[in-house]
Design goal:
There is one protein chain. This protein has about 240 residues and is α/β, with parallel strands linked by helices. Helix content is about 35%, strand content about 20%. It contains 9 helices and 8 strands. It has an 8-stranded mixed β-sheet with strand order 1-2-4-3-5-6-7-8, with helices on both faces. The protein is globular and about 45 Å long.
């Protein structure tokens, strides 16, 4: 399987950032890591092994990016405002550095954005905020509102709320979205949402699906058996949905 490692200093986040590219052609997948995970973990967990044939045959090219969640949403030493500001720097890294890198490597490709767990939040958030950049979204075991406690997963902003957090809370800003141009752009995206029946985020996913239905945004919403919030399930999900 074609595999390439890349690293460069990112002006957006003011540090060196790393990523892995698997494959040489086909639809491109911008793949966000899980909470606290790294750019190499999907490879280590065998998730990409399920895509071996599609990657080798030139159907898919996977871009596994790194995360700075430990410096933003999960940084205990930062205030909520500092957390969301650091996240926006990360979004700029993706938009201004990674997306152009993908376009240079594979011009005019069909573009998929995906993620598991916290990576699913990143995928949905960036796709809804910038819908013209992506053709397809595949999200697995995600949460789409970081301001709500869900099971043992707490509100990541400790009750603090402002406009910036609102516009990075997909369940909230999509619910109130009335701009038909943006809604129509989102409608053009092929959206697949997968979640386990025992996952702490199930109700949040159901709410997200309900909002999409209210906006008449077609999507696939699949509930898996068990919690399904682990690599063995994600391996099967990527095989089915990528």
């Amino acid at each position: 399987m074609d595999r390439a490692y890349h690293k460069w200093f990112s002006a957006a986040v003011n540090k060196e950032m790393e990523l892995l590219v698997f494959g040489y052609a086909g639809a491109t997948v911008l793949f966000f890591p899980t909470r606290g995970a790294r750019f190499y973990d999907y490879e280590n967990w065998g998730v990409l092994d399920k895509l071996h044939d599609k990657i080798n045959s030139g159907q898919l090219q996977i871009f596994c990016v790194d995360s700075i969640d430990k410096e933003s949403f999960y940084c205990k030493d930062k205030s909520p405002q500092e957390k969301i500001e650091r996240h926006l720097q990360y979004e700029n890294y993706i938009l201004k550095e990674v997306v152009p890198f993908i376009n240079k490597k594979n011009p005019k490709s069909y573009k998929i954005v995906a993620g598991c767990s916290m990576g699913a939040f990143h995928a949905v958030n960036i796709a809804l905020r910038h819908p013209k950049l992506f053709n397809k979204v595949v999200v697995m075991s995600g949460r789409y509102d970081l301001t709500k406690q869900m099971g043992d997963f707490k509100d990541l902003f400790d009750g603090y709320f402002n406009d910036t957090i609102y516009y990075n809370s997909p369940n909230q800003f999509l619910y109130n979205l009335s701009d038909n141009k943006i809604i129509n752009a989102i409608k053009k995206i092929d959206i697949t949402i997968a979640i386990g029946e025992n996952d702490s985020f199930l109700e949040n996913n159901k709410h997200f699906s309900q909002i999409l239905n209210q906006k008449q945004i077609y999507h696939n919403f699949i509930i898996w058996k068990q919690e399904a919030h682990k690599p063995p399930f994600w391996r099967d999900m990527v095989y089915l949905y990528f």
